[in-house]
Queue: 3 jobs
Job 1
Amino acid sequence: MLSDIAYKKMLWHSRRGMWELDILLLPFAEKKLPELNENDHKLYERLLTEEDQDLFACLVERVQHPDKELQTIIAKIREFAASGVAKPH
């Protein structure tokens, strides 16, 4: 289970230098992180270490991330974004 401190930390790190990433990451973090399993939490934390431009390119399917494990969390973020979620606060 994700602790409140870990959740808030990941939520904070989901705020990026690019507005486009904020639109993709913040709603996912706010709504889906509490539901994910521990492995997905670790993958999400690893994903947040990526450079903004590289991360954005993967999330909008310009390129495929070379790490197969990270591709699974990227797919979950894409799926969530495609479901028509609202913009972050």
Job 2
Amino acid sequence: MFNNKSNSKGDNKALLPTSTVNIIGSGTSIQGDIVCEGDIRIDGQVNGLVSTKAKIVVGPEGDITGDLVCQSADILGKVTGIIKVDELLFLKGNALVKGDVYTAHFEMEPTAKFNGRCYMDDQQPETQKHGKSVLQEAE
């Protein structure tokens, strides 16, 4: 009556996810760097570098002290450090970012807070020229 071939070994492989998602849950604290290939969601605390070739999501309870390096990022929690995003950085909800941002595209909801500088080009910022800061030369 029913022809069910889902028990074959080849069919079960199709049910596995194609990308890796890493989750640092609430109540988890990590001291050290995290380097991964797939997406990562952080709802706990991380003290160190977080780097991936994919997306980083910092949940509302997430708290990172260290740099972020990724393709795209959604931040709802707290990040203290330099953020380098190849594509879109999105600060949502009550996000709090303290540090400089390097990104191609930047979006921020009105309730989010950002304290730092934002660079949206491929050049590294030039902070000093001949012993004087750029701000001193502008005066």
Job 3
Amino acid sequence: MSDTHLAETIAQVPLTFSDWKPIRHLEDPLHKDLSAVTRIGDCLFLACDETASVERLRRLDDGSFGDHQHFVLDALVDLPAGADGEMDIEGLCADDGFLWIVGSHSRKRSKPKRDENDHTEALQKMEEIEREPNRYFLGRIPLVEGAPGLFTPARSEGERQAAWLRLGKRRSALERWLAADPHLGPFLSIPSKENGFDVEGLAVHGNRVWLGLRGPVLRGHAVVLDLELKQKAPDRLKAGRVDGEHRYRKHLLDTRGLGIRDMRFAGDDLLLLVGPTMSLEGPAFVLRWRDAAHDDASGVIAPERIETVAELPYQLHVDHPEGVELWPEAGSGALLIIYDAPAPERTDPDTFTVQADVICPSEARPNES
């Protein structure tokens, strides 16, 4: 992937968050800690990985997005750890009148503080591995169009209801299905920043839901899980058997050791935002998985079906690409990119505004072996 040209930034879109202060436990304002994005009509829905909420911004007359509205998800779905439990939302996708949401499904190890004086205590803290039950959420919420292009999440609208896979304080449905998986089972109890199991990408077509994993990366291959979900009871999604006795398909893609950070369908092709795994720093890329919507069996995807669309500009310790969305008004193939840890020149601390990039990808070219 090193032979690609850097993507050209053709525009920037200001995103202004005015309603973040009610989130009491946040150390940083929302605009510095974005983890997921999706668009429907004139609305951008975004998430911060430290909350159990989604944020809605509305397109304003000047092309920026503001009029921030904060939606606490515990009012719309049942969360085992309630409104204060971190969901670690890493994927959003608007499809067919629903807002789909996925948490990381990952465990975490305590991180020592840089200024911690008691090194023995810091070492002991690092023995702790936490499982936070809200992180295992995968579900959808109806979107109600109150005015043209303006959508609001609701627990129900007519026959459409919020629904999700079964959660539990000890194990979720997805964990149960993956426990015996020879590739992924051994990684379920490993913290995400140590190449453990970590969902960061989400894409939806009808009742098919694709989950892109930041980890584990297996011999240079990233993993995409592919489920078929239907609502079988109030508040409940269930996965059909799609691959023998399994309730998921499993696709491995040669990403040269990079993990998946987000995904979005462009027609039948799946665009993959990929970047470093664990806590590593390095460049990020947009890849195209040709005709992904028609893959109906588990397997390793042929390398010639994976094309590098763009390499994103890279700065050490800042501007970590976290989300991708189609941006057709800027031209065919244009994409919106949002960042975690935005560079200072990208933010306005007085107005809680951050600039998202609209990129024009370079001409797609197949990866070379």
